[in-house]
Predict the 3D structure of the following.
Amino acid sequence: MTHHQPKIDLSPKVSDEIRKTTCYMCACRCGINVHMKDGKVAYIEGNRDHPVNQGVLCAKGSSGIMQVNAPSRLRAPLKRVGPRGSGQFEEISWEEALTLATDWLAPIREEAPEKLAFFTGRDQSQSFTSFWAQAFGTPNYAAHGGFCSVNMAAGGIYTMGGAFWEFGQPDWDHAKLFMLFGVAEDHDSNPIKMGLGKLKARGAKVIGVNPIRSGYNAVADEWVGITPGTDGLFILSLVHCLLKAGKIDLEYLTWYTDAPCLVNCDPNSEEYGLILRDEEGRALVWDRIERRPRCYDKPDVCPDLGGTWVNEGIEHKSVFQFMVERYLSDEYSPEAVAERCGVPAGKIRAIANELARVAFEEAFEIQQEWTDFRGKKHKVMKGRPVAMHAMRGISAHANGFQTCRALHTLQILLGTVEVPGGFRFKPPYPKPVEAHPTPHCKSQPGRPLDGPHLGFVRGPEHLALKEDGTPARIDKAFSWENPMSAHGLMHMVISNAHAGDPYEIDTLFMYMANMSWNSSMNTKGVMEMLTDKGEDGEYVIPRIIYSDAYSSEMVAYADLVLPDTTYLERHDCISLLDRPICEADGAADAIRWPVIEPDRDVKGFQSMLCDLGARLGLPGFVNEDGSQKYADYGDYITNHIRRPGVGPLFGWRMGEDGKEQPGRGAANPDQLQRYIDNGGFHLQHVPDAARYYKPWNMEYQDWAVKMGLFDVPHPYLFTLYCEPMRKFQLAAEGHGERQPPEHLRARIKATMDPLPIWWDTVEANRGAEYPVHALTQRPMAMYHSWGSQNAWLRQIHGQNPLYVPTKIWEENGFAEGDWARVTSPHGEIVVPVAHMAALNANTVWTWNAIGKRKGAWALEEDAPEATKGFLLNHLIHELLPEKGDGLRWSNSDPITGQAAWFDLRVRIEKAAAPAESQPAFDPIASPVGHGPKVNRQKVG
């Protein structure tokens, strides 16, 4: 019988060759194996040897094939021939495009470099793009962090030298209790999924704190459906409970934090409220043995958490005493906060009890010796198996910076940071604020900027201000309005440039930042700003240069389009100088390389900048004879030296003996090939004695210097009491040479408290008139705008409803298939609704960036993304509602300037179903046409 059966190849040959590189379908930067057949990409799978994902790959990563073959890919440089916003272009050559860009930019650099605003999106090469901008001389550079998660990053670095995600990770192997705060499923998705698998396998408990129960929160053992924007209050109530019960790690606080440091309590002092220091500027603690103030790092010092020093009649108290006095106040009791947080008082107490029980009753030890920075040798590493993770959900609020600091304070009080079972840093972190640069803004004609654009201010002396006290940057970063804005305010660039506030610009140069659509608040208003003309008939923003790989909505608003490659056609550097792929047990970096060649007339953006930089004669981009220094980005990655022995990549550098070595060393012409041969990455494991206690562990500090992470050891104390914030308060109180404007004094004094505080953002957003919270989340299958043009991923999220909780659903009489009108202080949308029970009772939400504008992304004009998909961005404004004082108040955190996306308040009511989601905009012309009705690919 069998001789009649067809022969089936049960193991078909998938590929002729496997090329290993790094994924770019989200920011995880997983390792991937790209299977090639007949010179084309046939299949993408995870690289099992890669430290980030260990072979795990998500839907996004696997669907990279569709990204590389997307019909929306730009094909050649474009020059605008129709009105801005029309999408009408002509294709031109690269020579013409770069000549035009040079003709526009060269006069700016020679006359007023600040007239160039250069801002980039999720390019993951910020150490390079900032280097280019610094060479140009403009102070106006930043990336997307200002509207993404700067509160998380800055809050962590100012408190403990690092934060979540790219800075650190839970100790997945030892944690027994894991809490997530405001984490959507797009963030660090594969490592978190793998980690959750480990926790579940060991029986660890997972608690999810999020208004929305989806993704990670859906698999949590306990879900806390908190009211948006109240996370800080909830966390400080947990702190209250722990302090009241005495369940804090006193030993940890004594030796590794500033809790015992003495605060100047003399109200007549110019340093009132600052840490007392010796003549060399080192913090003082009260020594419980010698009964006198001493430097915190003396080998024989014995700090006293409750110590006080009476000097000349003034009693100076420790940081810890200030914390106890504040957080034991009844205003932080569970009963006082429960209603505002939407969390019952009993649940708050139960979670605090569980944190204490696991941290202290399930503590353990690892038998590993180590030596701290005071020279004390320890026989063991003490573990507290409570780990935490948080992201944009708690940071994208006007109170987000202080909320993030509150969460880090909670971890520190429990002694769960950099210990077994807790939160662990990823090299090159931790790094104290003092190890980071301060921001620079001195712009001079024909000269490079005087230093890095972005950094961490230590006080008013580091603000980016002109001599007259006005902001030196177009986004007003590092000004009195947002003093500690470590990542800039990208969401304010277009609005400020249009308003000429603080000054007018000539050219807006953006990369991979879809600012005319899903990356902007006030989307309709931004489109109008980009096309607005003055009385002279010229555009208010005279020139716009834009680079992207795809025909996004923003392309239509450019005067010149410089087409980028897709991620499999380019060199990229995931560098220790930037946003590396490290894990807690090892320093690692990675590359992308052209596993395929482009079939279009496109250039990698960074390679294009090497060419443009040379044409402009920028220092660092030309040799002494004026010739181009770097042929392309790959050449830059290999040969650029940032400081002696340190370049973009730390693997396979050249030692003095001519042999390859990790860490410090000379440039190696074969370095990129070494990475390619190793699967696209390099990894150096942290020595066993250095795996934990990194900020205070001299084995780690010395290893970090050897690897080139630091130039000198940087041991430091965690900062529960943030002195830079107190310095700004002092200025607002009238001290110091630099003084804030009168209208900002009260806000600075109120918000820039050196100990974490919480304030309600409801009133500022007219919450009495708009009683419902409205949020967005990115789905796991999408990243930014890219996913909803992807032929595979579109089948998962082709359109998005507005999810409505049971209470609001029933109040409005909604039924399946209904639509709603959603109104905010700034606009209205009409969209389809869906019922969701697992949702905070006063919150509606939707997936972000699904909705598309007709004509963009090569989608048909009747595509579901363009007719049923929608954005909440139309309801959000970059400015707060009018206060009646005539001032432009940014809808941002007043400390860092992070966009307060999640403070949005709305009204919702049933509406008749329109033909398509509202608002609807006229189609834009597509410079690449539309994709085929059927998208098939057969390789081999």
Remarks:
- The chain has a mean pLDDT of 95.
- The CA atoms of residues 22 and 31 lie 5 Å apart.
- The first strand starts at residue 17 and ends at 22.
- The chain is about 25% helix and 15% strand.
